[in-house]
Amino acid sequence: MHHILRTVNTLHVHPLRIMYADFRSRYAILAPKEAHKAMKMVKRPVTDEKKNIAATHAVMDKIEMSKEKFGYGHTKIFFRAGVLGLMEEIRYLL
Fold first, then answer.
1. Strand pairing of 16-19 and 76-79?
2. Topology annotation, domain 2-93
3. Does 29 or 9 have the greater pLDDT score?
């Protein structure tokens, strides 16, 4: 029951969500060296999902976004409304 309530709360507070693989392919450009290094440091068993999660964490650490604006799930990263627009602006400026 706790997991269901936690999921509902996450979706309410962070309505936008992206699979880690999609996030990595779109936003790794914001911190390419850090993302690549994080993917190389994944421990065994090495899977694409673990690499995607590591790269996502590295990108979010690099851009230093407030932890209140996003959250990590098991398979997706969650964002508050308006944050993806900001991410796109940062991406566009590169």
1. antiparallel
2. Alpha-Beta Plaits (3.30.70)
3. 29
